[in-house]
């Protein structure tokens, strides 16, 4: 049954989802597989509309929309469809001899009714990818798209409404500052999955804690990029430009600031300038380059331009919500530019003489969501991997660690709680339930009183 969600009160909607989940309808492998396939077909049928919506919201080129939004969702769907049966099978770990004749099993249970809250920067992918995990895990789901990407929110609601009944998956629209507290303070979810800023993540966690609701928080922070002296500088420049200025820098794992060995700094800057022009032309506003999401973000980013010396870019156009790819140096560590997550096409550049300098700078904004290192030196690579806490990252590349569904994506400390992608999405939306099964054909009786003369035998099984 498909009904108009607008005519259903939020409380009634959540109650219907709880009733549907409790009916057991979502539990079987066949049901979950069918829903994943339906979702894939619905996206395929609405591809053009999705591209158009992303163009209106963020001025994304169709290539970028497919590569960073729709294509990644297809990858996740295909991976889940292929491996779902294996994921759902109970795991049989070994059992201690002291528990003979018993066998142990770990079952993966759905959590129940979950809430997924998406940001505006990748408004399609960052809502639908977690939904794949929720469906694979056997849950009912309420989706909250970002109202700051309204065209994408509308097409998502259309896809969900035409594909699933609201008692199973539903979309709730509106101002997140009002809708989300209303949902979380007045109703209990079995998981809240949030992608967005650190301050809002704190608020989500606080509301969830009042009802002992578990959360997964995919946040952000200031992700450093380091270019060593032993490096393929040409490839580094290309990949930094791509990683930083994709989606006009509005990417939670974009390089937030750049640290380059002093001996390579000027050469790297010239190569970055070269590739900015090569990728986006002399007039990026006319090329394959995105726009800033809204006037509020535009104003914030524009203020950052006064906090250092611009060495490339710096052009703005408020009417087009355009800020050119910008390199900036001589930035104070006390400035907002180096204390806020930039989330835009502005790249501060610092030089370093020793690796200790880079660690000291990173310590000012610890636990980044992503970390990028360009080097040919394996010892340098291991130094940073072993010493620096970060969510995930790349050696000699940027961003692409998100593209492998076989590795988890998530933050650490201030950059997030929990992870997902591939099987990790399935794990995120399920809970482990352990079961021990004992045969009845034998009973040693060692655990029963009286215990006289049994301690020696017990020590054989439970050694110190």
Automatic annotation (TrEMBL):
Pfam families in alphabetical order: Aldedh
UniProt-annotated catalytic positions: 218, 252
Highest taxon above the source species: Bacteria
Gene Ontology MF annotations: aldehyde dehydrogenase (NAD+) activity
Residue ranges constituting the Aldehyde dehydrogenase domain according to the UniProt record: 6-435
Entry GO CC: cytoplasm
Keywords: NAD, Oxidoreductase
GO biological process: aldehyde metabolic process
Database matches in PANTHER family: ALDEHYDE DEHYDROGENASE, ALDEHYDE DEHYDROGENASE TYPE III, ISOFORM Q
Family: Belongs to the aldehyde dehydrogenase family.
Protein name, UniProt field: Aldehyde dehydrogenase
Origin species: Solitalea agri
